[in-house]
Amino acid sequence: MPVPRRFDRRPPERDATRTNERIRVPEVRLIDDEGQQVGVLKTADALAFAQERELDLVEVAPDARPPVCRVLDYSKYKYEQAQKQKAARKHQQQITVREIKFRPKIAEHDYDTKKNHVERFLRHKDKVKITIMFRGREVTHPERGTAILDRLAEELSELGVVEQRPMQEGRNMTMLMAPSKAVLAGRVAGEAPATATVAAGASAEAAATGSAPAAEAGAPASAPAAGSAAAEGPAAEGSAAEGSAAQGSAAEDSAAEGDAEGSAAQAPAAERPRPAAPRPADGDAGAANGGQAPAEPVLAEAAAKDRAAPAA
Fold it and tell me: Distance between CA atoms of 84 and 90, rounded to whole angstroms?
């Protein structure tokens, strides 16, 4: 937690370079603003020499006897130094040290996974510290850890170099790998192994589909022959079409009749239409009614009288 400012008793940070009145030595070796050596002068005279030119007297070599001072614009000098340091930091390449841990009895699948992590770190231009952790009596077999580290260094020889050989430290064995010159120069592709596998699968798929157009291109070769065969017999095809149309209409009629009969047969007895009874002839009407006249004319006359009654 930072100390509050009102309780901070430390003096403020000051520039360590002594300038002008801060120079306490009796005499100095003076260099003018053009870089020419003036000689050894008393400090007051050197300060007056700088003030005449409206510049600063700056102590550049305090350990010399007498100290060396130079006449210059100190603010401009500090700005130029800051710009130089900034440019130097810009061109610096910061390398991060990553760490990954193995076990002496690591399974093959786990080994491949961790190896992919190490490869990814090296492709990103980071150093990798590989640690083998021994437990219990495993520490009595350091050759297992050495074998794992040597195998890893051999499989990743294109991406990294061994900067520190396997070294036993208590129950841990460590090895340091750094990115190779090819990786630092950018001559090695920066894609991960999984991405490379996907790219390989895509190229294989493209190669497989590339043969399909060739097969399709061969199909039109047989099309002209089929076209000539179709052109040879248009009349025969027309007659065959008419015959098939006639057969199709007859089949539809027979199918419709069959559906009607089937539906009538499947209907229940209550819903089936009853056949109409034959109407007897005029001569047979009296015989049917027991020798009497038919009742229909009588009923018709009664209905006519009923309709006429409300009008009266």
Answer: 10
Q: Which domains occur in the chain, in start order? A: 15-73 (3.10.20.80), 97-188 (3.30.110.10)
pLDDT, one tens digit for every residue, the chain (312 residues)? 555 566 667 777 777 888 998 999 999 999 998 889 999 999 999 999 999 999 999 999 999 999 999 999 999 989 998 999 998 888 777 778 999 999 999 999 999 999 999 999 999 989 999 999 999 999 999 999 999 999 999 999 999 999 999 999 999 999 999 999 988 888 876 555 444 444 445 555 555 555 444 444 444 444 444 444 333 444 444 444 454 444 555 445 554 455 545 444 444 444 555 555 555 554 444 444 444 555 566 677 777 777 766 554
For CA atoms 286, 288, 289, 294, the dihedral sign is negative
> In the chain, what is the straight-line distance between the N-terminal and C-terminal CA atoms, in Å?
124
Spatial distance between the Cα atoms of 281 and 13, rounded to a whole number of angstroms: 142
Check residue 294 and report its DSSP letter. Answer: P
What does the alpha-carbon distance between residue 128 and residue 96 come to, in Å, rounded to a whole number? 8
Burial of 300 (0-12, 13-18, 19+ CB in 10 A): exposed
0.85 surpassed by pTM: no
CA-based radius of gyration for the chain: 56
